[in-house]
């Protein structure tokens, strides 16, 4: 058997049938009446009642008759069928809809990722969420940025806040205009992807009010998600250091972003070696 290009209407129909048929009526407080059931699992009318839609609607979906469920219906079907998170995401992809709430933003580092950040030494590394909140970091990152993150209140452990508001960080990047511009372009993409995140919306409003550069660049509406790049740092002890950065998104924790810095040239590597040796 060969698998052809996905026909989303047919795949949606088959997926809904298989998810319905695997369910045990007794788990829903329904009598099994197995001797009266010609197919396993829940009946279509039972799924329809659980999802709050008509039986005809379920029939048409399972017969691949070209329906495109709304976000509310997809949410209701996912709940009625007790879909696991990966299955729920698959259902949204098949219906070409996007969940209204993709999940609460990470406010603490997942323990395995925090351990990974520490294990990446001597490479400077940190963990952030989509807001640029810094959730974990290793000693090399603290030394490179000259910041003891533990002494900062949580509201200030944010890469964009530090770049805009922290007095020692304002001159830290040699090409500050580009760094801020790219950071804002990334932040705007995150803002659109998380419209329910009021904390992020409030933070952007605060930046716009307090920083003229941010307000000017935000109004340009540039969009760019930076997964890798180069920065030139002006370190007071080690001099200028060029670094490459890489941003990785873990499958298990997609709201957390692992950021790793590496020296971009031999001179920068020597500067980092001297800095970390001290």
What keywords describe this structure?
Lambda_DNA-bd_dom_sf, Helix-turn-helix transcriptional regulator, elongated, single chain, 45% helix, 5-stranded antiparallel β-sheet, alpha+beta, Beta-Lactamase, 278 residues, 434 Repressor (Amino-terminal Domain), 5 strands
What portion of residues belong to β-strands? 5-15%
Coarse morphology: elongated
Structural class: alpha+beta
CATH fold descriptor of the largest domain: Beta-Lactamase
Q: How many domain regions?
A: 2
pLDDT < 50 runs, ≥5 residues: none
Largest sheet: 5 strands, antiparallel
| CATH architecture label name of the largest domain | 2-Layer Sandwich
Task: Tell me the name of the CATH class of the largest domain.
Answer: Alpha Beta
Relative helix content: 40-55%
**Rg to the nearest angstrom?**
25 Å
Strand order within the widest sheet? 2-1-5-4-3
In words, what does this structure look like?
The protein contains 12 helices and 5 strands. The chain has helices spanning 8-21, 44-51, 55-62, 71-80, 85-94, 111-119, 139-145, 159-165, 176-193, 198-210, 212-219, 266-277, and strands at residues 125-128, 134-137, 228-235, 239-248, 257-263. The chain starts with 7 loop residues before the first helix and ends with a helix. The chain has a 5-stranded antiparallel beta sheet. It is of the alpha+beta class and 278 residues long. Helix 2 (44-51) packs across helix 3 (55-62). The relative contact order is 0.09. It is elongated. It is 45% helix and 12% strand. The chain has 2 domains: 8-94, lambda repressor-like DNA-binding domains (434 Repressor (Amino-terminal Domain), Orthogonal Bundle); 111-277, Beta-Lactamase.
């Amino acid at each position: 058997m060969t698998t052809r290009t996905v026909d989303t209407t047919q795949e949606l129909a088959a997926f809904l049938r298989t998810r319905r048929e695997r369910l045990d009526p007794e788990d829903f407080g329904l009598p099994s009446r197995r001797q009266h059931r010609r197919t396993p699992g829940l009946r279509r009318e039972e799924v329809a009642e659980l999802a709050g839609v008509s039986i005809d609607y379920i029939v048409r979906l399972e017969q691949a008759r070209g329906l495109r469920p709304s976000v509310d219906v997809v949410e209701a079907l996912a709940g009625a069928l007790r879909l696991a998170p990966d299955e729920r995401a698959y259902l949204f992809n098949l219906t070409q809809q996007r969940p209204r709430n993709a999940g609460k933003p990470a406010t603490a580092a997942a323990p395995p990722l925090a351990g990974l950040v520490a294990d990446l030494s001597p490479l400077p590394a940190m963990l952030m969420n989509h807001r640029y909140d810094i959730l974990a970091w290793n000693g090399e990152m603290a030394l490179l940025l000259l910041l003891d993150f533990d002494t900062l209140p949580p509201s200030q452990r944010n890469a964009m806040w530090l770049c805009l508001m922290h007095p020692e960080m304002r001159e830290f990047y040699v090409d500050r205009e580009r760094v801020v511009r790219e950071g804002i372009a990334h932040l705007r993409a995150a803002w659109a992807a998380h419209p329910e995140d009021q904390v992020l919306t409030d933070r952007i409003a605060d930046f716009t009010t307090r920083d003229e550069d941010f307000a000017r660049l935000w109004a340009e509406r540039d969009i760019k998600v930076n997964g890798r790049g180069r920065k030139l740092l002006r370190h007071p002890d080690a001099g200028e250091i060029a670094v490459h950065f890489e941003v990785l998104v873990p499958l298990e924790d997609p709201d957390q972003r692992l950021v790793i810095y590496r020296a971009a040239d031999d001179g920068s590597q020597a500067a980092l070696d001297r800095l970390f040796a001290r």
